């Protein structure tokens, strides 16, 4: 179950204060219809993370375990630093899909906003690290929903009261921990550790 719980926790923490969370807040304020927005988030996130997970699985099948561990260590360290930088929502991302209603507006905007985002990159890395592909995708999707559904349901109330700096630091620490684990694994596989 580690393939499910670790991705859920890591993505939920990384998503707090992310631009897609800001997008969820904007969509909730604009449409005031939470269930179509949540439905659009689910479909967009599953599609986006499935794509990212397939890339991660492909990478893990083409590289040696040692090389993959070193790449994962570097990538998790980079995402740890990236997690400390607050996101800002681009106006173009906020306006995409407005004419289609709440479900399709959310589907289009969320899918596009997640392209190249740290949670998509994290999904690639987690799918490369954990062998249970489906559990990783379900976990990262649940992590996105844990962070974003309360924002849609509670609107600005929840977003204004979250300690975003602390949450970004906890997310960075989680990614740093994954980087350390990947480094340990790379050193072990390389025979560089005496134990």
TrEMBL record:
<feature type="transmembrane region" description="Helical">
    <location>
        <begin position="166"/>
        <end position="184"/>
    </location>
</feature>
<dbReference type="InterPro" id="IPR001727">
    <property type="entry name" value="GDT1-like"/>
</dbReference>
<keyword id="KW-1133">Transmembrane helix</keyword>
<feature type="transmembrane region" description="Helical">
    <location>
        <begin position="67"/>
        <end position="85"/>
    </location>
</feature>
<keyword id="KW-0472">Membrane</keyword>
<feature type="transmembrane region" description="Helical">
    <location>
        <begin position="35"/>
        <end position="55"/>
    </location>
</feature>
<dbReference type="Pfam" id="PF01169">
    <property type="entry name" value="GDT1"/>
</dbReference>
<feature type="transmembrane region" description="Helical">
    <location>
        <begin position="133"/>
        <end position="154"/>
    </location>
</feature>
<dbReference type="GO" id="GO:0046873">
    <property type="term" value="F:metal ion transmembrane transporter activity"/>
</dbReference>
<protein>
    <recommendedName>
        <fullName>GDT1 family protein</fullName>
    </recommendedName>
</protein>
<comment type="similarity">
    <text>Belongs to the GDT1 family.</text>
</comment>
<keyword id="KW-0812">Transmembrane</keyword>
<dbReference type="GO" id="GO:0016020">
    <property type="term" value="C:membrane"/>
</dbReference>
